[in-house]
Amino acid sequence: GRRVVVVGAGMAGVQTAVALREQGFRGAVTLIGAEPHQPYDRPPLSKAVLLGKAEGSAFEVDFESLGVELRLGCEALGVRPAEHELDTEAGPVPYDVLVLATGAEPVLLPGTEGVPGVHLLRTLDDAERLRPVLARQHEVVVVGAGWIGAEFATAAREAGCEVTVVEAADRPLAGALPAEVAAPMARWYADAGAQLRTHARVERVEPGAVLIADGTRLPAGAVVVGIGARPATGWLAGSGIGLGPHGEVLADAHLRAGVEDVYAVGDCASFPSARYGERLLVHHWDNALQGPRTVAANIMGETPAVYDPVPYFWSEQFGRFVQYAGHHAGADRLVWRGDPAGPAWTVCWLRGDRLVALLAVGRPRDLAQGRRLIEAGRSMDAQALSDPGRPLKDA
Ligand code: FAD
């Protein structure tokens, strides 16, 4: 039978192996991962694992009974597509089909490499290094008010740390949400007893302090950097596999990587979305669950399956459950459902009269119904939509 080799043993790699077996693939499946740990899930790292409420977050997958060969602690170094060979630390690995699922790696704050007390939060090792920081209740400075920064700040406040979040932009989540939507979310920091400093560019990090461009010196027992992540694709340089502006593999609508018998899925790849009329690079868990099903179907099937999901993610921050579905652009029209100063509200994005995205805070029913409405592409009445008492599906 054919041999499928999957590179990267995170959510997308593991789900590819699982989906292949679920869909009846009988050939060999080898899953190769750089980290030494049993494959694990990342979302708990900034939540239960960080707070010590869960020991770890290993996937409950029995690789042996699935007939999946796991090679952990083994980094892939390159691909030679013409020879159908992957090069790894442990030597070359031949494949019939290769799946790239190497995820993303956090962006480093320039000049902080090797500075003691500066942390990232991407891996289980990172989370384990951060646990004692929380336990010692240090003064913590978080650089970046994105999703990770907000979740880390939440956990650190819960652990009793003093928390300052510094953000270069004028608001939290500046890359993801418009000012109008970010404004009520910015207030959550203060409500939780964390200090949010916007327009605050880090000049330098010294042992024990963070220096801001305006001259402020913030004492810091620890610094946590959450300023984004980039696809982990440096190892593909020179392979002939095309990379996009963020270093992502430019997959096609079938998640093929542009060279024969190679696919790419999860955080490491972008794909063209006909639904949204643009290429999407999604760094969220649900994409690493759904994409692998398409990859497995395309490895198995004769008629290529198209990957064009309604993206979805959630975040747990400052005691709120935040969910987002779809994809919006700057020109889309905002419609509010409920009072953004209150504990639960939703904001919808309309393109023409169609719902293209929504953000729901503490309103999981809106999210579930909205996600289906986006999928169906149904026309909506903006006036009815703005009434939070009326079910979204009846608007
Ligand atoms: P990854 O999980 O990054 O896995 C890739 C794996 O490949 C890694 O283990 C890496 O070591 C390995 N690898 C890389 N290069 C090589 C190589 N050359 N050779 C071999 N192996 C290699 N999303 C949500 O929707 N909601 C959340 O609440 C949420 N919380 C998160 C919290 C944290 C702390 C983090 C870090 C992420 C969170 N995410 C969340 C995002 C979500 O976890 C990711 O989208 C998901 O993990 C992507 O899966 P992946 O398999 O594509 O990549």
From TrEMBL:
Recorded GO MF terms: oxidoreductase activity, acting on NAD(P)H
Domain FAD/NAD(P)-binding, chain residue ranges per copy: 3-288
Keywords, sorted A to Z: FAD, Flavoprotein, Oxidoreductase
Domain annotation Reductase C-terminal: ranges: 312-395
Pfam families: Pyr_redox_2, Reductase_C
UniProt key word Oxidoreductase: yes
Residues covered by region (Disordered): 379-395
A GO cellular component entry from the record: cytoplasm
Cofactor: FAD
Protein name (Swiss-Prot/TrEMBL): NAD(P)/FAD-dependent oxidoreductase
UniProt lineage: Bacteria, Bacillati, Actinomycetota, Actinomycetes, Kitasatosporales
